[in-house]
Amino acid sequence: QSALTQPASVSGSPGQSITISCTGTSSDVGGYNYVSWFQQHPGKAPRLMIYDVSYRPSGVSNRFSGSKSGNTASLTISGLQAEDEADYYCSSYTSTYTRVFGGGTKLTVL
Amino acid sequence: QLQLVQSGAEVKKPGSSVKVSCEVSGGTFTTYAISWVRQAPGQGLEWMGGIIPISGTTKYAQNFQGRVTITADVSTSTAYMELSSLRSDDTAVYYCAPSVVRGVDNYNCIDPWGQGTLVTVSS
Questions:
Q1: What percent of chain B stands above pLDDT 70?
Q2: Which of A36, B4, B72, B79 is spaced 20 to 30 A from A14 at the CA atom?
Q3: To the nearest whole angstrom, how far is the Cα of B75 from the nearest Cα of chain A?
Q4: Which residues does residue B32 pair with via DSSP β-bridges, in sequence order?
Q5: Using a CB-CB distance cutoff of 8 angstroms, which residues of chain A are in contact with residue B107?
Q6: Is B83 helix (H, G, I), strand (E, B) or coil?
Q7: What is the pLDDT of residues A72-102, one digit of tens each?
Q8: Which residues share a beta bridge with A39?
């Protein structure tokens, strides 16, 4: 199972919105509504931000939203804040009953 | 609340094996699945496999088939990940993460993850 494809880096200024893409295939992202997004700050464990494409766990800001079109899922962060600077990973269920992660995207808040 | 506590850092020789534990507290162990995810230095997350403790059902990523064994001890609410034939590129932080068992996508990884265990493979 190949890793999902994410841009290596994205950036935005405080208050702006950014979108991170996550491209897979019909055997993972495109085939199921089971895409998750994780935030990871340096030296910390990942934190779940979005599950099942567009659902936010309790405690996650509504500035974070998820969507999917075809084989590509997206994470949008609106009203960027300095604390959003982190690495972001997507993950999807696959046709072999496993999970696969994306390569990760480094978000820089300018 | 749910808490996952992992065993401490390990230094291993190439060719040897390592076994990392993940003790779950604050929740009912048998209602979760446990996934293992690793992260090499400066690299991304890699799903290795998982187990549904109540049934003992396991699933492994193709990249680790034959080299990783995931087990669980329901009596102690602890999951284990053993990786054999270690190589230098197995040097990584290994995380355990709980998952909601729901029939499909049982290794979905929710919060909170364990704190991570650094495994260093060096001669």
A1: 100
A2: A36
A3: 26
A4: B100
A5: 98-99
A6: strand
A7: 999 999 999 999 999 999 999 999 999 999 9
A8: A47, A88
User: What local confidence, expressed as pLDDT, does residue B96 receive?
Assistant: 98
Closest residue in chain B to residue A91, using alpha carbons only: B108
The pLDDT value recorded for residue A2 is 83
How many of the other CB atoms lie within 10 Å of CB of A86? 20
Instruction: Report yes or no: A108 and A18 within 8 Å, Cβ to Cβ.
Output: no
The beta strand positions in chain B, using DSSP E, are: 3-6, 10-12, 18-25, 32-39, 45-52, 57-60, 68-73, 78-83, 92-100, 117-121
User: 3-class SS at A31?
Assistant: helix
Question: Testing the interface with B: which of A99, A100, A101, A106 to mutate, by most B Cβ within 10 A?
Answer: A99
Which residue from A47, A96, A104 is facing B111, i.e. has the nearest CB?
A47
One-letter amino acid identity for A51? Answer: Y
Mean pLDDT of chain B: 96
CA distance A82 to B120: 33
Q: What is the pLDDT of residue B115?
A: 97
Which tens digits make up the pLDDT trace of A20-52?
A: 999 999 999 999 999 999 999 999 999 999 999
Please choose, from the candidates A6, A45, A8, A48, the residue with its C-alpha nearest in 3D space to the C-alpha of residue A29: A6
A38 vs B105: CB contact, 8 Å cut-off? no
Mean of the per-residue pLDDT values of chain A: 97
User: Using a CB-CB distance cutoff of 8 angstroms, which residues of chain A are in contact with residue B97?
Assistant: 46
